[in-house]
Amino acid sequence: MAAQSFEKAYRALKKGDVAPVYYLTGVEDVLKDEFITFVIDETLDPESRDFNLDVRSASDLSGESLHALIETPPMLAERRVVVVKNLEQWRRNAKVWQVLDRYLEHPSSTTVLIMTHGSGEQPRKAVAAHSEHVVFDPLNPDRLIRWVRRRAKLAGFEFADDAARHLLAAVDTDLAALRMEIDKLASAAPDGVVDLALTSDLVGVRRGETLHDWVDALVLRETTGAISMLDTVLGGAGVTGVRMVSALGTALIGIRIAREQLDRGGNERQARDAIFAALRAARPHGVRSWKDEATLWTRAAGSWTARELTRGIRAAYECDRALKSTTVSTESGTLASLAMDMAQLEAAA
Questions:
Q1: Which pLDDT belongs to residue 284?
Q2: What 3-state class would DSSP assign to 92?
Q3: Is the pTM for the entire model greater than 0.85?
Q4: Residue 144 contacts by C-beta under 8 Å, 6 or more apart in sequence?
Q5: How far is residue 224's CA from residue 205's CA, in Å, rounded to a whole number?
Q6: First to last CA, the chain
């Protein structure tokens, strides 16, 4: 079967259309776990769940044990659910694949089999062809903010004002880290509401001192502000020098797209549209709302020439290489040097 998005698979489940076999691939393991929970909730009653749910790691299963697991009939229920995680743990020519392939040709009508492949692993074509293949790609910015708000609601609170967006700015798009921070916020939410101040306190990152703020300062040619917040941004959870330079490089490339449109005689709307189209096609990691990024990068393009942007992108690339080298002294010093290089480009112009 052709691969489908998890949104489409969710919609089918909500209508009661449960497939006999699911094959979950893609990079977002958190979303895979959520989908598995949803399938279980749609398939099994709480009273019979203990008897009719098996969750196993592929490494613990041989051909014989897999056969017994998936052919066991349900107890006091219409169906049972079997979850087998991390199929990549089986050797390519292991006999267990033969058992699985035979089952997939004629799956049981009383068993819902859910299989996962680890993040970054290539799907097995034979499995994908005989199952409901669901791909879990990274969420775009709009879906990500909805996911954060939904997780908060499940945890028993709501975000007020810009608190949810600040959480994303502070933690980035790592769903596991976001889920952990949401759980922390749930334990401290007064009256079921988390505001911006509480989010800043518990996450440990104040508004105006996030990785995105650092990037914005550099691309808007506010070098002093970028350098002053450097150590604070580097001290954020999960923030590394490489991640900061990667975010800067993405922004510079976006601004270069806008600059090219403007140099061709286009207006700001055309520049924003070109950036938005590039973001939608590339879906780069760690960006905010595509609309907001397109607006800011188009505004920043007025402060850069095409030649400066080319040199800036090259400087970011060299900084990335230096940060990945074992000879670099400190991340802070290397990033400060990059910021000064950006300032010198403006001074030279």
A1: 87
A2: coil
A3: no
A4: 168, 173
A5: 20
A6: 56
